[in-house]
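Saturday, quiet lab. Running sequence design on the C-alpha coordinates for the scaffold JK sent over.
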Protein backbone atom coordinates (compact mmCIF):
# COMPACT_ATOMS: atom_id res chain seq x y z
CA UNK A 1 0.00 0.00 0.00
CA UNK A 2 1.52 3.37 -1.03
CA UNK A 3 2.43 5.73 1.79
CA UNK A 4 0.33 8.90 1.96
CA UNK A 5 2.27 12.13 2.29
CA UNK A 6 -0.09 14.08 4.55
CA UNK A 7 2.18 17.12 4.63
CA UNK A 8 2.09 17.42 0.84
CA UNK A 9 -1.63 16.67 0.81
CA UNK A 10 -2.38 19.33 3.43
CA UNK A 11 -0.13 22.16 2.29
CA UNK A 12 0.52 21.64 -1.43
CA UNK A 13 -2.93 20.61 -2.68
CA UNK A 14 -4.97 23.31 -4.46
CA UNK A 15 -6.24 25.70 -1.80
CA UNK A 16 -9.67 26.14 -3.36
CA UNK A 17 -10.43 22.42 -3.01
CA UNK A 18 -9.78 22.50 0.73
CA UNK A 19 -11.97 25.59 1.12
CA UNK A 20 -14.84 24.00 -0.80
CA UNK A 21 -14.49 20.86 1.29
CA UNK A 22 -14.50 22.89 4.50
CA UNK A 23 -17.75 24.69 3.66
CA UNK A 24 -19.43 21.50 2.48
CA UNK A 25 -18.57 19.72 5.73
CA UNK A 26 -19.47 22.73 7.90
CA UNK A 27 -22.87 23.39 6.34
CA UNK A 28 -23.74 19.70 6.02
CA UNK A 29 -22.97 19.08 9.71
CA UNK A 30 -25.35 21.79 10.97
CA UNK A 31 -28.01 20.98 8.38
CA UNK A 32 -28.05 17.36 9.49
CA UNK A 33 -28.07 18.29 13.19
CA UNK A 34 -30.89 20.86 12.88
CA UNK A 35 -32.79 18.75 10.35
CA UNK A 36 -32.88 15.80 12.73
CA UNK A 37 -35.13 17.75 15.13
CA UNK A 38 -38.12 17.93 12.74
CA UNK A 39 -36.96 15.44 10.07
CA UNK A 40 -36.87 18.30 7.54
CA UNK A 41 -33.34 18.14 6.17
CA UNK A 42 -33.93 20.01 2.92
CA UNK A 43 -35.29 23.04 4.78
CA UNK A 44 -32.26 23.12 7.06
CA UNK A 45 -29.83 22.74 4.16
CA UNK A 46 -31.40 25.84 2.58
CA UNK A 47 -31.22 27.62 5.93
CA UNK A 48 -27.48 26.97 6.52
CA UNK A 49 -26.62 27.79 2.91
CA UNK A 50 -28.36 31.16 3.23
CA UNK A 51 -26.46 31.75 6.49
CA UNK A 52 -23.24 30.92 4.62
CA UNK A 53 -23.86 33.85 2.27
CA UNK A 54 -22.99 36.10 5.22
CA UNK A 55 -20.47 33.81 6.93
CA UNK A 56 -18.20 33.31 3.89
CA UNK A 57 -17.23 36.97 3.33
CA UNK A 58 -16.78 37.46 7.09
CA UNK A 59 -14.41 34.49 7.29
CA UNK A 60 -12.29 35.53 4.31
CA UNK A 61 -12.10 39.13 5.46
CA UNK A 62 -10.56 37.86 8.70
CA UNK A 63 -8.32 35.24 7.04
CA UNK A 64 -6.87 37.33 4.23
CA UNK A 65 -7.01 40.88 5.59
CA UNK A 66 -6.99 41.02 9.38
CA UNK A 67 -4.69 38.06 10.08
CA UNK A 68 -1.89 38.88 7.57
CA UNK A 69 -1.97 42.64 8.23
CA UNK A 70 -2.43 42.58 12.00
CA UNK A 71 -2.20 39.21 13.76
CA UNK A 72 0.87 37.85 11.96
CA UNK A 73 2.64 41.17 12.48
CA UNK A 74 2.12 41.11 16.22
CA UNK A 75 -0.58 43.81 16.33
CA UNK A 76 -2.79 41.76 18.61
CA UNK A 77 -4.80 44.60 20.15
CA UNK A 78 -5.78 46.05 16.78
CA UNK A 79 -6.58 42.57 15.47
CA UNK A 80 -9.05 41.75 18.24
CA UNK A 81 -10.71 45.18 17.99
CA UNK A 82 -11.27 44.76 14.25
CA UNK A 83 -12.32 41.14 14.77
CA UNK A 84 -15.02 42.22 17.21
CA UNK A 85 -16.21 44.86 14.75
CA UNK A 86 -16.38 42.33 11.90
CA UNK A 87 -18.38 39.92 14.04
CA UNK A 88 -20.89 42.62 15.01
CA UNK A 89 -21.27 43.99 11.47
CA UNK A 90 -21.77 40.58 9.89
CA UNK A 91 -24.09 39.54 12.70
CA UNK A 92 -26.24 42.49 11.67
CA UNK A 93 -26.02 41.30 8.03
CA UNK A 94 -27.02 37.79 9.16
CA UNK A 95 -30.08 39.19 10.96
CA UNK A 96 -31.05 41.29 7.93
CA UNK A 97 -30.59 38.16 5.78
CA UNK A 98 -33.01 36.31 8.04
CA UNK A 99 -35.62 39.09 8.08
CA UNK A 100 -35.47 40.05 4.38
CA UNK A 101 -34.76 36.70 2.70
CA UNK A 102 -35.00 33.62 4.90
CA UNK A 103 -38.24 34.47 6.69
CA UNK A 104 -40.29 34.93 3.53
CA UNK A 105 -38.54 32.15 1.57
CA UNK A 106 -38.40 29.37 4.16
CA UNK A 107 -41.19 30.19 6.65
CA UNK A 108 -43.81 32.19 4.69
CA UNK A 109 -46.74 30.93 6.78
CA UNK A 110 -45.18 31.87 10.11
CA UNK A 111 -47.13 34.69 11.78
CA UNK A 112 -44.00 36.04 13.48
CA UNK A 113 -43.08 39.47 12.05
CA UNK A 114 -39.50 40.33 13.03
CA UNK A 115 -38.32 43.92 13.21
CA UNK A 116 -35.42 44.74 10.88
CA UNK A 117 -33.44 46.83 13.37
CA UNK A 118 -33.37 44.86 16.62
CA UNK A 119 -30.14 45.27 18.61
CA UNK A 120 -30.89 42.35 20.91
CA UNK A 121 -31.48 39.99 17.98
CA UNK A 122 -28.34 41.23 16.26
CA UNK A 123 -26.24 40.38 19.35
CA UNK A 124 -27.94 36.99 19.56
CA UNK A 125 -27.16 36.33 15.89
CA UNK A 126 -23.42 36.59 16.62
CA UNK A 127 -23.72 32.86 17.45
CA UNK A 128 -24.03 32.27 13.71
CA UNK A 129 -20.88 34.23 12.88
CA UNK A 130 -18.17 33.91 15.53
CA UNK A 131 -17.98 30.06 15.73
CA UNK A 132 -17.06 29.64 12.08
CA UNK A 133 -14.66 32.60 12.23
CA UNK A 134 -12.96 31.11 15.30
CA UNK A 135 -12.65 27.74 13.56
CA UNK A 136 -11.13 29.36 10.49
CA UNK A 137 -8.67 31.38 12.61
CA UNK A 138 -7.45 28.22 14.35
CA UNK A 139 -6.92 26.47 11.02
CA UNK A 140 -5.12 29.43 9.49
CA UNK A 141 -2.94 29.95 12.57
CA UNK A 142 -1.92 26.29 12.61
CA UNK A 143 -0.94 26.47 8.94
CA UNK A 144 1.04 29.67 9.54
CA UNK A 145 2.76 28.20 12.63
CA UNK A 146 3.64 24.98 10.80
CA UNK A 147 5.17 26.82 7.86
CA UNK A 148 7.12 29.11 10.17
CA UNK A 149 8.49 26.05 11.98
CA UNK A 150 9.48 24.40 8.70
CA UNK A 151 11.10 27.61 7.45
CA UNK A 152 13.05 28.12 10.67
CA UNK A 153 14.14 24.49 10.64
CA UNK A 154 15.31 24.78 7.03
CA UNK A 155 17.20 27.99 7.78
CA UNK A 156 18.84 26.39 10.80
CA UNK A 157 19.86 23.35 8.76
CA UNK A 158 21.25 25.53 5.98
CA UNK A 159 23.16 27.62 8.53
CA UNK A 160 24.62 24.52 10.16
CA UNK A 161 25.56 23.08 6.77
CA UNK A 162 27.26 26.32 5.77
CA UNK A 163 29.13 26.35 9.08
CA UNK A 164 30.17 22.73 8.62
CA UNK A 165 31.43 23.43 5.11
CA UNK A 166 33.40 26.40 6.42
CA UNK A 167 34.92 24.42 9.28
CA UNK A 168 35.76 21.52 7.01
CA UNK A 169 37.34 23.81 4.43
CA UNK A 170 39.63 25.27 7.08
CA UNK A 171 41.35 21.89 7.41
CA UNK A 172 42.36 21.86 3.76
CA UNK A 173 44.42 25.07 3.36
CA UNK A 174 46.50 24.49 6.47
CA UNK A 175 47.35 20.95 5.49
CA UNK A 176 48.03 21.76 1.83
CA UNK A 177 50.22 24.70 2.76
CA UNK A 178 52.43 22.47 4.92
CA UNK A 179 52.62 19.69 2.33
CA UNK A 180 53.48 22.05 -0.53
CA UNK A 181 56.24 23.57 1.60
CA UNK A 182 57.62 20.07 2.15
CA UNK A 183 57.44 19.34 -1.55
CA UNK A 184 59.18 22.61 -2.38
CA UNK A 185 62.03 21.78 0.03
CA UNK A 186 62.45 18.31 -1.53
CA UNK A 187 62.53 19.64 -5.08
CA UNK A 188 65.21 22.16 -4.11
CA UNK A 189 67.35 19.23 -2.95
CA UNK A 190 66.35 17.16 -6.02
CA UNK A 191 65.25 14.48 -3.59
CA UNK A 192 64.10 11.10 -4.92
CA UNK A 193 61.24 11.31 -2.43
CA UNK A 194 59.58 14.21 -4.28
CA UNK A 195 57.56 11.94 -6.66
CA UNK A 196 56.25 9.97 -3.66
CA UNK A 197 55.12 13.22 -2.04
CA UNK A 198 53.33 14.22 -5.23
CA UNK A 199 51.58 10.84 -5.35
CA UNK A 200 50.52 11.01 -1.71
CA UNK A 201 49.37 14.58 -2.11
CA UNK A 202 47.33 13.60 -5.16
CA UNK A 203 45.61 10.85 -3.19
CA UNK A 204 44.85 13.22 -0.33
CA UNK A 205 43.46 15.87 -2.66
CA UNK A 206 41.26 13.29 -4.36
CA UNK A 207 39.88 12.26 -0.97
CA UNK A 208 39.31 15.81 0.25
CA UNK A 209 37.70 17.07 -2.97
CA UNK A 210 35.50 14.13 -3.87
CA UNK A 211 35.00 11.90 -0.84
CA UNK A 212 34.51 14.51 1.87
CA UNK A 213 31.36 15.94 0.29
CA UNK A 214 29.39 13.02 1.74
CA UNK A 215 27.83 13.23 5.20
CA UNK A 216 29.73 10.15 6.33
CA UNK A 217 32.65 8.07 5.04
CA UNK A 218 34.04 4.73 6.05
CA UNK A 219 36.38 4.75 9.01
CA UNK A 220 38.84 2.74 6.92
CA UNK A 221 39.18 5.66 4.48
CA UNK A 222 39.74 8.09 7.33
CA UNK A 223 42.47 5.86 8.70
CA UNK A 224 44.05 5.60 5.24
CA UNK A 225 44.03 9.40 5.04
CA UNK A 226 45.84 9.59 8.37
CA UNK A 227 48.36 6.99 7.19
CA UNK A 228 49.11 9.01 4.04
CA UNK A 229 49.48 12.14 6.14
CA UNK A 230 51.92 10.37 8.47
CA UNK A 231 53.94 9.14 5.48
CA UNK A 232 54.27 12.71 4.24
CA UNK A 233 55.35 13.94 7.65
CA UNK A 234 57.90 11.14 7.93
CA UNK A 235 59.44 12.31 4.68
CA UNK A 236 59.61 15.82 6.08
CA UNK A 237 61.13 15.02 9.48
CA UNK A 238 63.13 11.90 8.67
CA UNK A 239 64.72 9.84 11.42
CA UNK A 240 64.05 12.31 14.22
CA UNK A 241 60.37 11.39 14.11
CA UNK A 242 58.90 8.25 15.65
CA UNK A 243 55.22 7.61 14.87
CA UNK A 244 53.03 4.68 15.90
CA UNK A 245 49.50 4.04 14.66
CA UNK A 246 47.66 1.25 16.46
CA UNK A 247 44.21 -0.03 15.49
CA UNK A 248 42.18 -2.14 17.89
CA UNK A 249 39.10 -4.20 17.01
CA UNK A 250 37.35 -4.20 13.65
CA UNK A 251 36.84 -0.87 11.88
CA UNK A 252 35.40 -2.11 8.58
CA UNK A 253 31.81 -1.09 7.96
CA UNK A 254 32.01 1.77 10.50
CA UNK A 255 30.90 5.19 9.26
CA UNK A 256 32.11 8.56 10.54
CA UNK A 257 31.91 12.21 9.51
CA UNK A 258 34.79 13.04 7.12
CA UNK A 259 37.96 14.75 8.35
CA UNK A 260 37.14 14.06 11.96
CA UNK A 261 40.39 12.32 12.95
CA UNK A 262 42.99 14.19 10.88
CA UNK A 263 42.79 17.53 12.78
CA UNK A 264 43.90 15.83 16.02
CA UNK A 265 46.85 14.22 14.24
CA UNK A 266 47.71 17.52 12.52
CA UNK A 267 47.63 19.28 15.87
CA UNK A 268 50.03 16.74 17.36
CA UNK A 269 52.56 17.31 14.59
CA UNK A 270 52.14 21.08 14.57
CA UNK A 271 52.67 21.58 18.30
CA UNK A 272 54.81 18.57 19.14
CA UNK A 273 57.01 17.68 16.22
CA UNK A 274 57.53 20.87 14.26
CA UNK A 275 58.74 22.77 17.34
CA UNK A 276 61.26 20.11 18.39
CA UNK A 277 64.76 19.95 16.95
CA UNK A 278 65.66 16.66 18.63
CA UNK A 279 63.85 13.34 18.52
CA UNK A 280 60.08 13.57 18.85
CA UNK A 281 57.25 11.09 18.84
CA UNK A 282 53.53 10.79 18.12
CA UNK A 283 51.36 7.88 19.25
CA UNK A 284 47.91 7.29 17.76
CA UNK A 285 45.54 4.63 19.13
CA UNK A 286 42.14 3.99 17.58
CA UNK A 287 39.67 1.46 18.90
CA UNK A 288 36.08 0.60 18.10
CA UNK A 289 33.83 -1.44 20.35
CA UNK A 290 30.12 -1.80 19.66
CA UNK A 291 29.95 1.56 17.89
CA UNK A 292 31.92 3.35 20.59
CA UNK A 293 35.00 4.91 19.04
CA UNK A 294 37.98 5.94 21.13
CA UNK A 295 40.81 7.97 19.64
CA UNK A 296 43.95 8.75 21.60
CA UNK A 297 46.57 11.04 20.09
CA UNK A 298 49.61 11.71 22.22
CA UNK A 299 52.69 13.69 21.22
CA UNK A 300 55.94 14.65 22.86
CA UNK A 301 56.04 18.16 24.22
CA UNK A 302 58.62 20.42 22.69
CA UNK A 303 61.36 21.64 25.01
CA UNK A 304 61.18 24.93 23.11
CA UNK A 305 57.45 25.35 23.67
CA UNK A 306 56.35 28.52 25.42
CA UNK A 307 53.23 29.25 27.46
CA UNK A 308 51.72 30.81 24.34
CA UNK A 309 52.36 27.61 22.36
CA UNK A 310 50.72 25.51 25.07
CA UNK A 311 47.66 27.78 25.04
CA UNK A 312 47.55 27.52 21.24
CA UNK A 313 47.66 23.73 21.47
CA UNK A 314 44.63 23.60 23.73
CA UNK A 315 42.62 26.49 22.31
CA UNK A 316 43.93 26.74 18.75
CA UNK A 317 41.73 26.97 15.69
CA UNK A 318 42.29 23.31 14.73
CA UNK A 319 40.86 21.79 17.92
CA UNK A 320 38.28 24.58 18.21
CA UNK A 321 36.95 23.81 14.74
CA UNK A 322 36.77 20.06 15.21
CA UNK A 323 35.04 20.54 18.57
CA UNK A 324 32.42 22.72 16.91
CA UNK A 325 31.92 20.07 14.23
CA UNK A 326 31.46 17.47 16.95
CA UNK A 327 28.83 19.66 18.63
CA UNK A 328 26.91 19.92 15.37
CA UNK A 329 27.28 16.37 14.07
CA UNK A 330 27.38 14.38 17.30
CA UNK A 331 25.50 16.35 19.97
CA UNK A 332 25.70 14.67 23.38
CA UNK A 333 27.46 11.72 21.75
CA UNK A 334 31.09 12.64 22.33
CA UNK A 335 33.58 13.38 25.06
CA UNK A 336 36.77 15.30 24.32
CA UNK A 337 39.55 15.63 26.90
CA UNK A 338 43.03 17.13 26.70
CA UNK A 339 45.63 16.03 29.23
CA UNK A 340 49.01 17.66 29.75
CA UNK A 341 52.01 16.16 31.49
CA UNK A 342 55.59 17.30 31.80
CA UNK A 343 56.60 15.36 28.68
CA UNK A 344 53.50 15.18 26.48
CA UNK A 345 50.04 16.26 25.39
CA UNK A 346 47.29 13.66 25.16
CA UNK A 347 43.97 14.14 23.37
CA UNK A 348 41.24 11.57 24.04
CA UNK A 349 38.08 11.54 21.95
CA UNK A 350 35.25 9.15 22.82
CA UNK A 351 32.56 9.11 20.18
CA UNK A 352 29.33 7.13 19.99
CA UNK A 353 28.66 6.37 16.35
CA UNK A 354 25.06 5.84 15.27
CA UNK A 355 24.08 3.50 12.47
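Result came back. Writing it out in full:
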Amino acid sequence: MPKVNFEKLMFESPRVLWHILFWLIYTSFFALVYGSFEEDYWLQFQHVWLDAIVQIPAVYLVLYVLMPKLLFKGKYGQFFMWLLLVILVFSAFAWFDYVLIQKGLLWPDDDYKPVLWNVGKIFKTTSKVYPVIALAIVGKWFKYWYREQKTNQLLAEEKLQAELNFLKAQVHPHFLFNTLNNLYALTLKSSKEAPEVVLKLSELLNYMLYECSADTVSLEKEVRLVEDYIDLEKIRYGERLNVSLNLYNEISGVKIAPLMILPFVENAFKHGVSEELDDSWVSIDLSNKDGNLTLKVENSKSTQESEEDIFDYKKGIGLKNVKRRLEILYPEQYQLDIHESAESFLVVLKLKLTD
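Notes for JK: The chain has a mean pLDDT of 78. The radius of gyration is 36 Å. Ask whether to fix the surface positions before the next round.
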